Amino acid sequence: MERNDRNYSTDLTDGQWALLEPLLPKPDPAKGGRPRRYSHRQILNALFYIEKTGCQWRMLPKEFPPWNLVWQYFRHWRDDGTLERIRLALNRKVRNKAGKERLPSVVLVDSQSVKTALKGGSGASTAARRSRAGSGTSWPTRWA
């Protein structure tokens, strides 16, 4: 079921698709299964739409494959490393185009973030306060 009535700015161009298609898992004929109703390109277009717009899965426009199918592909590709392979390939392409090495040679870490993330115990949480409702001075009182 190909979509042809609408084009979104997040849809893959033919050149982008040619770059990403080899990175996607190939069907295993030994496992069998039924033929795909939606192409991997349609699934990626839906994922890019969700990423760009921030829409909820269930609010995916009807021109895309059903939201629950897109969600299943997302989970599967996330868990098997496909999305990470795509991210790395795109990152390398951008770095190459900018004239940089394939992989970065320096990593910066914000030490404050690390300290906060590693802090634990009672110091990591705020102590409970007395109820404001029990204090007559905490909330303004309306005067009639």
3D structure, described in words:
This protein is mainly α. It has a domain at 39-102. The protein is 41% helix and 0% strand. It is built from 5 helices and no strands. The chain has helices spanning 14-20, 40-53, 67-80, 82-97, 111-118. Helix 2 (40-53) crosses helix 3 (67-80). The protein starts with 13 loop residues before the first helix and ends in a 26-residue tail after the last helix. The mean pLDDT is 81.
In this structure, how is the largest beta sheet organized? none
- Outline the low-pLDDT stretches: none
Query: What is the number of helical segments per DSSP (H or I, 4+ residues)?
Result: 5
Overall pLDDT: 81
Q: How widely separated are the two ends?
A: 68 Å
Strand percent estimate: under 5%
Gyration radius (Cα, Å) is: 25 Å
Short précis:
By secondary structure, the protein is mostly helical. Helix content is 41%, strand content 0%. It contains five helices and no strands.
Itemize the secondary structure elements and their pairings.
Blueprint: H1 14-20, H2 40-53, H3 67-80, H4 82-97, H5 111-118
Helix pairs in contact: 2-3
Features:
single chain; 0% strand; mainly alpha; extended; 144 residues
